[in-house]
From TrEMBL:
Record protein name field: tRNA uridine(34) hydroxylase
Transmembrane segments: none
HAMAP family attached to this UniProt entry: TrhO (MF_00469)
Catalytic activity: uridine(34) in tRNA + AH2 + O2 = 5-hydroxyuridine(34) in tRNA + A + H2O
One matching Pfam family: UPF0176_N
Length: 313
């Protein structure tokens, strides 16, 4: 049951969050946009789904019944019959609107001819991941971007310090040391980025390429904290900002100006102004930018007083 603002009842344990992706030839993806949007709207589901001729990717949230209905709708589409998803919970609404977007790629690498359906690395279940990344013959690579790796990563992993996934291919090509060990193990948030990354590395001549099945989220869900080799929190692309072991919500705050996750210490920094600036962007934005952000934040505060979500947030 939900209230008029879409908040799930406490009895239901908050909102159900479903992260999903599926690579499949989808030449008619444009025709699906409005149908999927309508299905989500009809069941009160919010979030973002990306469609391209290579498949679907995204995260949605809503009531248990709403998510079940949307997933059933998606799996009734023949190309999505084998669609898998990962579930977690959120106490507060993770998204404020529903967007179904048409894209060139469902995860943007920008390299032509990379198809995970043709060539991809070996999947490694979370229960077997520790042994692989502890092997001295393995190089472990975090394929996420710098603002994500800043708050958590696997022990001993290489951080490419990329701003976007488009930078990953050049990072690989410029790091000849990656050929020094026989095994490459990669991971990302939910698994989709590694599908592309492992396919790319196979095309670049790497043979023993592995990636974490289900990504960090599945690892944090299944591997007991006392056995975990994960340090920190995992950034997620919704209002929770981060999750930790057991997929519990973390204690990070999102800078609404630059979208960087912030620790409690960074929120206490004089450079932080809610909705306006943080230590990461205080010197990267102009006074005019900050003036616009303050006005936007004022509208957010007014909407909150009225018990509404500011849709532009």
């Amino acid at each position: 049951m939900t209230d008029i603002d879409g908040n799930a009842s406490a009895a239901e344990g908050g909102f159900l969050v479903a992260a999903l992706y599926h690579f499949t030839p989808l030449p008619h993806f444009e025709a699906l946009q409005q149908k999927i949007q309508a299905a989500c709207d009809d069941h009160g589901v919010k979030g973002t789904l990306l469609l391209a001729d290579e498949g679907i990717n995204g995260t949605i949230a809503g009531s248990d019944a709403g998510i079940a209905a949307v997933l059933a709708f998606l799996r009734a589409i023949p190309e999505f019959a084998d669609l898998e998803h990962k579930e977690s919970r959120a106490a507060k609404k993770p998204f404020h609107r529903m967007k179904v977007r048409l894209k060139k790629e469902i995860v943007t690498m920008g390299v032509e001819g990379i198809d995970p359906l043709e060539s991809v690395g070996t999947y490694v279940d979370p229960g077997e991941w520790n042994a692989l990344i502890s092997d001295p013959d393995t190089i472990v690579i975090d394929t996420r971007n710098d603002y994500e790796t800043a708050i958590g990563t696997f022990r001993g992993a290489l951080d490419p310090h990329t701003k976007t996934f488009r930078e990953f291919p050049d990072w690989v090509r410029n790091n000849t040391g990656l050929h020094n060990k026989p095994k490459i193990a990669m991971y990302c948030t939910g698994g989709i980025r590694c599908e592309k990354a492992s396919a790319f590395m196979k095309a670049e001549g790497f043979e023993d390429v592995f990636h974490l099945k289900g990504g960090i989220l599945k690892y944090l869900e299944e591997v007991p904290e006392e056995e975990s080799l994960w340090n920190g929190a995992c950034f997620v692309f919704d209002e929770r900002v981060s999750v930790t072991h057991g997929l519990r919500q973390g204690d990070h705050t999102l800078c609404r100006a630059c979208r960087h996750p912030l620790t409690r210490r960074e929120v206490a920094d004089p450079a932080f102004e809610d909705g306006v600036s943080c230590p990461y962007c205080i010197n990267e934005r102009s006074a005019d930018d900050r003036a616009r952000y303050r006005e936007r934040q004022k509208q957010v505060a007014l909407a909150k007083k009225r018990g509404k979500a500011h849709i532009g947030r």
